[in-house]
Known about the structure:
mainly beta
Amino acid sequence: MNGKRISTGAAMAVGALAAASLAFAPSALAVTPQEATINADCGIFGGGEATLTATQDGTAATITVTSAITAPIDLSEDSIASTLTLVNASGGTTAFAGTENPAMTTGDSVTVGPLNGTVASGDSLEAFGGSLQMTIFGINVTCTATAAQSPGPFVFD
């Protein structure tokens, strides 16, 4: 009977310790803002407002771009090779790359990503001064921001 009380007490202590450690665990890393817009110029392929959506998990980050250009024909899933280069406020650039995209029909906004990149805590990344390069059916399309992104650069924890 005494052994049962010790086991029960130990189990309760372990449970309380686990609950307390969850309550004081550090929050997940996050990027702010999570979404930004830019006015993009894609040369002969068009231009306009594009949306960038960012996520972060430690030093791994992703950005999905819904571009200002529309699909000229139906595009199959994962058929666009893309590299998004952002300017780091502390100097240099950071590239996000990948071949992920949803299937799109003619006239849909071209969406690429999530594009994968590596970030450091405190990185402040901006699209203005960088570029989005996409290869669609062997045709290279380069889009650049015509002004700073809004509401501001992506800042990573």
